[in-house]
UniProtKB/TrEMBL annotation:
Entry coiled-coil feature ranges: none
Gene3D superfamilies according to UniProt: Vaccinia Virus protein VP39
Keyword Methyltransferase: yes
E.C. number(s) listed in UniProt: 2.1.1.171
Listed GO MF terms: 16S rRNA (guanine(966)-N(2))-methyltransferase activity
Keywords: Methyltransferase, Transferase
NCBIfam families: 16S rRNA (guanine(966)-N(2))-methyltransferase RsmD
Protein name: 16S rRNA (Guanine(966)-N(2))-methyltransferase RsmD
InterPro entries named among the record's database cross-references: DNA_methylase_N6_adenine_CS, RNA_MeTrfase_RsmD, SAM-dependent_MTases_sf
Amino acid sequence: MTLRIYGNRQLKTLPGQETRPTLGRVREAVFNIWQGSINGCRWLDLCAGSGSMGAEALCRGANCVVGIEKWGKAGAIVEQNWQQVAQSEQKFQLLRGDVVGQLPTLAGQQFDRIYFDPPYASGLYQPVLEAIAHYQILAPTGEMAVEHSPNNWTVEPIPTLEICRQKVYGNTALTFFRVMSAEC
């Protein structure tokens, strides 16, 4: 199966719903919301799946894309997709393994944009948000988009992160976080 991203580029995906690629209209909405802030940014793609969000960021000029993906088959697809779209001056890296276990390896690094799209029933939302805050992975002026089901989704407040906007696109919802006192 293939999907198309910015510039009519085709990406590979795995068959079935194992990686559930972000819907085209949701991808487009995220990049419209963040337009003007992708070029030159540092992008973190959590639960990367097919890597479509990181690939889109590379196509739109992100300077560096880092992803985390647990499933080995998906990781191979992510690397192929990013290699296909990255320009020579752009850097990308895929960390393989559990997202909660890999986040401490990013301590000391900050990202301008973070996209987090785990399996909706995974129970990863709270621990990942807490790790992002604890390790200060989101840049002070950065923003994080969390994809989730619009039904029955809640997280406990994180002292240093705040919700700055929420959007619903059919069966997909996005909640955007920022570091407290930063502007969306």
